[in-house]
Design brief:
Order of helices and strands: EHEHEHEHEH
CATH topology: Rossmann fold
Strand order of the largest sheet: 2-1-3-4-5
Helix content: 40-55%
Oligomer: single chain
Number of helices: 5
Shape: globular
Largest sheet: 5 strands, parallel
Number of strands: 5
Strand content: 15-25%
Radius of gyration: 13 Å
Length: 130
Amino acid sequence: MRILIAEDDFASRKVILKFLSAYGDCDVTVDGMEAIDAFMMALEEGNPYDLICLDVMMPIMDGYQALKNIRDIEKEQNVPEDKAVKAIMTTALNEEKNVKKAFELGCTVYCGKPIDMEKLKSTLETIGLI
């Protein structure tokens, strides 16, 4: 599995990377713009990501904007829905409006922080990635 982690917080990034490295090859970015660049490069190489973990609150471009751009790119590239990257939004923003916005933009799973790794593992199993 190919995984992209977009997380600006060093400690969160390290924890997520350590956990997800057991399930696939991970690339790391620190903001939404870098995440979009990495996503585009992977598509152009013909080796797209299977999973992207997007922090909501990041500098330059937040996770919502990055996810919208990624979904737009998939539409432009005619990526079939069943081949679209699975997107997990990670955030401390757990209010209903934030969760709703994430799903409207096409997230697969909304994961509150601090991240419960057992719950994340179960989620990956549920969405068919492990």
